[in-house]
UniProtKB/TrEMBL annotation:
The keyword Hydrolase applies. Residues 34-393 form the Anti-CBASS protein Acb1-like N-terminal domain. Residues 433-455 are annotated as: Disordered. Residues 441-452 have a biased composition (Low complexity). Keywords: Hydrolase. This is Anti-CBASS protein Acb1.
Length: 609
């Protein structure tokens, strides 16, 4: 007989003697109460459920509309608690396999469809997150022409105080955990929990940790060899043996010495007694860390979205040249796909109601975009800001306008307001009547149509920019402990960011990304002497970047390079810098203070003891 296939009878591969021949997969479904118990009692299932849900709403979304419309939409989201309720619904969906957000419009008959077009301003009364613990799906809609085909035709809501109430599916924004094939949907109406496929990996990881913890108690075992032990036990000497062992262990624990019977000839007899022996047996833990790494990788891959090990276990990437950026990028791409392919469609009807409830109408041009998930560094933000500004200049000229200037201005303003590049920009535009949607005049004009609201470049002036030290008291206490008899007043401790005797346009200097700068404890610190001043030098990329921005705007600087520092004292009797241990605590700086250069600044210095 000829077999078309691979069958190795010698090695028993492919036959019923193969160890893998009888292997199969079993679907171990868990009810809602069991899933809740698992979630509440173990941190690893909690992390798998919570992390993607939190990341999906962490930076939320930005509405693309006119500034006043954006303000109203965001206010409506806050009133309804939409962001928090979306997070809770996503967590419940991942845990139970499904959940929903119930839209309340004040209707007395929830069995009727909810028509978003009938929602008026303020018509969305509230949102309620419901889980399979409170709501159960009805029979599945099998009509292919129905918008709810393949989904429950209704849901039954149990309030606990009255009979179950039927809810039309149009009133629910439904989130699935893990979408399942149609046959399973027919029987349950929900998806699967993300824990269902991951439970084996979770149990194996938890079991490994438990076994290692148990092994730690057996890491060192004392072994004592007692000659003729069984004979002594048979003759009823258990108490004597126990007392002997306890005395030996007590002496070993107190004095670090263990006294044993050395054996030898029994006095008055020719019988030779064997000697007691002592040894320690230690368990080996080598290789367990590498094995745990593999368990972590398996758990990471077992989740619906492969969550990086660094996110689940709080561990940084391991290995040479490992940064974890690749894993994080893949994960964030997965979260982005979840936002666009699952969360967005689930909230489509809710968003239609939200827009009408916020604005009283549904402008066709309004839409939203999910904000980026990766946190940009200050350097990256500065580069993006510069690219946006350069692109706007290219579109506006100088070799001919590509797009209308008003359109470019409105688009750039919306971009900068939404991404927070220029805090306070919207309020400033409103203050100067420069909002693009001005109904009483064209952009840049006052309501009477005049050009008085147009903002022009400010007159160049000398520039001195500083930041006050907010924790000055802590630094002065350090200075006193180092032997300083006098120091500057706490209110005078500051860091100079710019000191330009050359006049510059202050508006060209822009605004700092951070109103408050916090320099963490530690890092490079050094005491130096600048003339009569004793100063504390420290490092801050934020201050360096900001100083360079002032120089780009035309500011001058009297020194070869910029070095952030805090002047402690001008006292001639101050200790030698060689004897001072630099301050190592945090440095907290307040917002930037702009002022003109005062050449007599030294005359106003005051010190206190």
């Amino acid at each position: 007989m000829l077999h078309d296939g691979y069958r190795n009878l010698v090695a028993n591969l492919g036959t019923d003697r193969d160890k893998a021949y009888h292997g199969s997969y079993v679907l171990n479904l868990l009810d809602a109460h069991s899933l809740l118990t698992i979630y509440r009692s173990a941190w690893l299932p909690q992390a798998i459920v919570d992390i993607p849900a939190l990341d999906a709403v962490r930076n939320w979304r930005s509405w693309q509309a006119k500034p006043d419309q954006i303000t109203q939409l965001e206010a409506e989201e806050r009133r309804l608690g939409l962001r928090e309720k979306t997070r809770d619904a996503l967590k419940a969906a991942r845990l139970y396999g499904g959940a929903g957000i119930l839209m309340l419009d004040g209707s007395s008959d929830p069995t009727k469809p909810l028509n978003p077009e009938r929602i008026r301003k303020g018509g969305l009364k509230g949102l309620v997150v419901v889980t399979p613990m409170q709501i159960s799906p009805g029979e599945i809609e099998r009509d292919p022409e129905s918008p709810f085909y393949g989904r429950p035709a209704y849901y039954s809501l149990s309030t606990g105080t009255k009979a179950a109430e039927q809810i039309h599916p149009s009133r629910l924004a439904v989130f699935d955990g893990v979408p399942v094939p149609d046959a399973a949907t027919v029987s349950t109406g929900w998806g699967d929990s993300v824990l269902l496929a991951a439970m084996d990996a979770i149990n194996h990881a938890d079991g490994f940790v438990a076994n290692v913890a148990a092994l730690a108690h057996e890491a060192k075992i004392d072994v004592i060899h007692i000659p003729r032990l069984m004979e002594m036990l048979a003759s009823g000497q258990e108490a004597a043996i126990t007392e002997r062992l306890m005395l030996g262990m007590r002496n070993k624990g107190t004095n670090g010495a263990l006294v044993l019977d050395g054996g030898g000839t029994i006095p008055g007899s020719s019988e030779v007694r064997g000697k007691e022996e002592y040894e320690q047996k230690s368990a080996s833990f080598s290789g367990l860390d590498a094995l745990w790494d593999r368990f972590m990788m398996v758990v990471s891959g077992a989740t619906k979205l492969p969550i990086p090990v660094s996110r689940i276990f709080g561990r940084s990437a391991a290995g040479m040249n490992a940064t974890g950026d690749g894993d994080e990028r893949v994960y964030f791409d997965g979260v982005k796909a979840m936002q666009e392919l699952e969360v967005g469609p689930a909230m489509a009807a809710l968003d239609e109601c939200l827009i009408r409830s916020a604005l009283g109408a549904r402008p066709a041009e309004i839409f939203y975009a999910w904000r980026p998930l990766r946190q940009e560094t200050e350097e990256t933000k500065a580069k993006v800001f510069k690219m946006v500004a350069d692109a706007a200049r290219v579109l506006a000229g100088p070799n001919g306008m590509i797009l209308p200037e008003e359109a470019i201005s409105e688009a750039v303003a919306n971009r900068l307001i939404e991404d927070g590049s220029l805090p306070g920009l919207e309020a400033a535009m409103e203050k100067y009547n420069w909002l693009p949607d001005d109904s009483d005049g064209s952009p840049g004009q006052s309501p009477d149509g005049s050009d008085s609201a147009v903002v022009t470049d400010s007159a160049p002036r000398t520039l001195y920019v500083s930041r006050k030290v907010l924790n000055a008291g802590e630094i002065i206490r350090w200075a006193k402990s180092q032997g300083f008899g006098k120091t500057l007043n706490a209110s005078d401790l500051h860091v100079t960011v710019a000191f330009s005797r050359t006049p510059v346009d202050w508006m060209e200097c822009g605004e700092s990304w951070q109103g408050r700068v916090e320099v963490e404890a530690g890092g490079p610190r050094q005491m130096e002497r600048f003339g009569e001043a004793r100063v504390l030098l420290f490092a801050s990329n934020d201050l360096h970047w900001r100083h360079e921005r002032f120089k780009e705007a035309g500011a001058s600087w009297d020194h070869p390079q910029y070095q952030p520092h805090i002047t402690i004292s001008y006292d001639p009797e101050a200790p030698s810098i060689d004897d001072i241990e630099p301050y190592q605590g945090p440095i907290i700086l307040g917002p930037e203070i702009f002022a003109e250069v005062q050449e007599d600044w030294a005359a106003r210095i005051e010190e206190t003891e």
